[in-house]
Design a protein that fits this description.
Blueprint: E1 4-9, E2 13-19, H1 22-27, E3 35-37, H2 40-52, E4 58-62, H3 64-75, E5 79-82, H4 89-100, E6 104-105, E7 115-122, E8 128-135, H5 147-151, E9 153-159, H6 166-181, E10 185-189, H7 193-198, H8 200-207, E11 211-217, H9 218-225, H10 230-237, E12 241-247, E13 253-256, E14 263-264, H11 277-290, H12 295-310, H13 319-328
Length: 331
């Protein structure tokens, strides 16, 4: 039996979430509803503007794969996470927050520099817009991959955002080769339509001769497969992964378990903030399948958990909410 059910790797970011108006996005020429990589001065400009407006800022350790790993841990999975932080206040906050969530973090000493930050701006329609300064995460190397923990894990989970750089993609490609050679199953999130489209070659290089599971939403699936409907996208995704899950928000999800392609019904929700819904879906799903549950059951748990996330501000649920879901599903 392996020590960890899930080993996640991704950008180690401190998330700063704030409610903004559409007028704010327009005033500062921010593309709505997508993730945009920015430099440190640009992010500082936006944070200063928000400070001037006395906006309430919420800080948490974050990044897509980190959020998913924390979700899996909160359901009871044994988890490990790798990411690159700097030896600064935000880096220490990241590690402390992750440890408090019950996730083991690699023991590599932090280096000088600036820990990455993601500014998550949420508008009244619950849409989230992200401006990300990668900071230390931009230079993720093989140093951050704990070979022993990776080999001793059941699943290796990767966020697609890492593959927007060829050097990082090469690091992840090597890690995937190690995972495959040691019987560790590999899951990949396509992360964002722009990643799925513009960095498809890096995604394919990491996938290699095939992986075990792909997570994506409908837009990401269509972008990666260069198709116009989910039926065609599903056919092509089978060439890349043994299984997959395509989320469609309130409509639920299409799940391929290797044999069948059932549709998991969505869960009605009064959306306040969509940030973290996809991360929660992946984390809950991975917890379920590493616990021996079926893909259908996993999708039900994931849909329910994601619906809870969009009903609150922030990408995570608190312990009371996790306890409620665990009770509902007999966990």
């Amino acid at each position: 039996m392996k020590k960890y059910q899930l080993y996640g790797v991704g950008a180690a970011l401190v998330d700063t979430e704030v409610v903004v108006s559409d007028a704010f996005l327009e005033q500062y020429r921010i593309d709505k509803g997508v993730m945009t990589l920015v430099d440190q001065p640009r992010q500082a400009e936006l944070l200063q503007a928000l400070s001037a407006e006395h906006a309430h800022l919420m800080h948490k350790c974050g990044g897509s794969a980190c959020n998913s790993t924390v979700a899996a841990a909160s359901f009871g999975a044994s988890t490990f996470f790798s990411g690159r932080v700097a030896d600064d206040e935000d880096g220490r906050h990241f590690v402390s927050d992750l440890t408090e969530a019950g996730v083991k973090f690699h023991s590599v000493e932090a280096e000088s520099g600036v820990t990455g930050k993601c500014l998550v701006m949420v508008t009244d329609d619950a849409e989230r817009t992200m401006n990300t300064y990668l900071g230390a995460s931009e230079n993720l190397t093989e140093r951050e991959i704990d070979q022993s923990a990776l080999i001793n894990s059941e699943w290796f989970y990767i966020e697609g955002y890492l593959l927007t750089d060829d050097t990082r993609a090469a690091v992840i490609e090597d890690a995937v080769a190690t995972a495959k050679a040691n019987g560790v199953k590999v899951a990949l999130s396509l992360s964002d339509p722009f990643v799925a489209q513009l960095f498809a070659d890096n995604l394919r290089a990491v996938i290699g001769d095939g992986i075990d599971l792909i997570f994506c939403n409908k837009e990401e699936a269509l972008a990666f497969t260069d198709t116009e409907n989910t039926d065609d996208a599903c056919e092509i995704l089978r060439d890349y992964a043994k299984t997959f899950a395509i989320t469609e928000g309130a409509k639920g999800a299409i799940v391929f378990d290797g044999k069948d392609t059932p549709r998991a019904q969505g869960v009605a929700a009064d959306a306040v903030d969509t940030n973290g819904a996809g991360d929660m879906f992946a984390g809950a799903f991975l917890y379920a399948i590493t616990s021996g549950r079926s893909y259908g059951w996993a999708a039900e748990l994931a849909n329910k958990s994601a619906a809870r996330v969009v009903e609150r501000f922030g990408p995570r649920l608190d312990t009371v909410e996790f306890a409620s879901i665990r009770q509902q599903f007999g966990i």
